[in-house]
Specification:
The chain has 15 helices and 21 strands. It is α/β, with parallel strands linked by helices. Helix 1 packs parallel to helix 9 (329-343). The radius of gyration is 24 Å and the shape is globular.
Length: 472
């Protein structure tokens, strides 16, 4: 049995960073990965999806600029988009990522890793050989999540697209049905519509798109999607699906229809492909959790040092999506740094992944948010006030072009006079987000923020208008 100080199972962004951070403390560290080092984000999610979205976003930006709009002629070069997407995904070759890992002093082990009791990890290669490894200090689980397939009649019996197929497809589907109006659903709807899909339909069971964000964000994004020809069906449930071999999909949905309101009824929707974007599930069913007293298939509950609850000795950690705290790449990397430092002996506590989680939907307009929504704050019993300003009603927006739409909002704790939530809707508003994140994490009083002068003419001037709306 080979011995390491730390063994990390899963070499996605969270796992890589946990391993590198542990190694930076002088600990002998190994990382295990059965697929591609770099994980979901690098090859099947964050990076390829943004490559598919960027051409439409760029064209929309140019079309808003008088003079430049006339230069936009012809169609998007789809093969070139696919080539760029594959390049951003390293052409699905993880050699560079493995080099990054080993350059940080971490030993890379290719295979399927699973726990085998206290501080022991078994690694099985594709060829079937199994080796046993011991961790003297810690094991870190970073196996991430996969697409959740809802229990809809017929769904498990046909071929469907999850986020992996949706971001790596080699042809534009003529008709595309997307189940789920969260981040994956809306991004893929806009991407494939702008790349040439004739019909794109989004089905969301909740009353609005992006149901976890501010209501106005989902409504404004819906308007933008409908303007480019996407059909959005909210308050609508997928009842059943069928497919004739590799032919078209027929879906039955129940809801009010495109116009909304009125009685609910069944509608048949035909599509060439169906994307299931209805949530995620943790990859914990085959990693030996039962050998340490945890339940396979569940998220791994952790404390604020990322140590797994219910495992004595504090040697088991879980970072990234697999712990369910915040299913985002950047929060996973943050948790990885916390775990690596705690394993290395530092006194650290994770707070940012609970109180100030930044998130961006990379549609046009972008939806960028951090911290609590107004309703979440009120549900926590906080005395808050929300202030809004039109994102396009600042000079910086007029420089970007005509028709800049969207709403910006701050949620302010009235008792402490600090920002606890922020949402920005509009082109490129993701770049406004870090200032809000700093304000929340730093608990900067709004009376102090009043003296943070925004540059003119930039979108950042919306901060001044929001503070004026508050009464400063």
């Amino acid at each position: 049995m080979t011995t390491f100080d730390v063994i990390v199972i899963g070499a996605g962004p969270a796992g890589e960073n946990a391993a590198a951070r542990a190694a930076s403390h002088g600990l002998r560290t190994a990382i295990v990965e059965r697929e591609l080092a770099g994980g979901e984000c690098s090859y099947w999610a964050c990076m390829p999806s943004k490559a598919l979205l960027r051409p439409g976003e760029a064209l929309a930006a140019v079309r808003r600029v008088p003079g430049a709009a006339a230069a936009v002629t012809g169609d998007i070069d789809v093969p070139a988009v696919f080539e760029r997407r594959d390049a951003l995904a390293a052409n699905f070759d993880d050699a560079g990522q493995v080099t990054w890992i080993t350059d940080h002093g971490v030993e890379f082990l290719r295979g399927h890793g699973r726990l085998d009791g206290q501080r022991t990890v078994l690694v099985t290669t594709d060829e079937g050989s199994t080796s046993s490894y011991a961790a003297t200090r810690a094991v870190v689980i970073a196996t991430g999540t996969g697409a959740f397939l809802p229990p809809v009649p017929g769904l498990s019996e046909i071929s469907v697209w999850d986020n992996r197929q949706a971001t790596t497809a080699e042809a534009v589907p003529h008709r595309l049905l997307i189940v789920g109006g969260g981040v994956v659903g809306v991004e893929m709807a806009q991407a494939w519509k702008t790349l040439g899909s004739a019909e794109v339909t989004v089905v969301e069971m909740m009353p609005r798109l992006l149901p976890r964000e501010e209501p106005f964000a989902g409504e404004e994004l819906r308007e933008a999607l409908e303007e480019i020809g996407v059909t959005v069906l909210t308050g609508t449930t997928l009842i059943s699906v069928s497919r004739d071999g590799t032919g078209p999909v027929t879906a039955v949905v129940e809801g009010p229809g495109p116009s909304g309101g009125g009685s609910r009824h069944d509608t048949h929707i035909g599509a060439d492909e169906i994307v299931i974007a209805a949530g995620r599930r943790p990859h914990t069913d085959t990693i030996g959790l039962d050998t340490v007293g945890l339940t396979p298939g569940d998220y791994i509950d952790v404390n604020d040092q990322m140590q797994a609850s219910g495992v004595s000795g504090g040697w088991l950690y879980a970072v990234g999506d697999v712990n369910g705290r915040a299913l985002l790449t950047h929060t996973g990397k943050y948790q990885a740094r916390i775990a690596g430092d705690h394993i290395g002996g530092r006194d650290v506590t994770a707070t940012g992944d609970l109180t100030a989680v930044p998130r961006v939907v990379f549609t046009d307009p972008q939806v960028a948010a951090v911290g609590l929504t107004e309703q979440e704050a009120r549900d926590q019993g906080l005395s808050v006030r929300a202030v809004q300003h039109r994102t396009g009603h600042v000079a910086g927006a007029s420089v970007l072009g005509r028709g800049i739409k969207g709403t910006s909002q701050l949620v302010i704790d009235e008792n402490r006079r600090v920002v606890i939530g922020a949402t920005f809707v509009g082109p490129g508003t993701g770049e406004l987000l870090h200032a809000a994140t700093i304000a929340i994490v730093g608990e900067v009083p709004i009376d102090t923020l009043w003296h943070a002068i925004p540059s003119f003419p930039t979108l950042s001037e919306v901060w001044l208008r929001l503070l004026e709306a508050y009464g400063l």
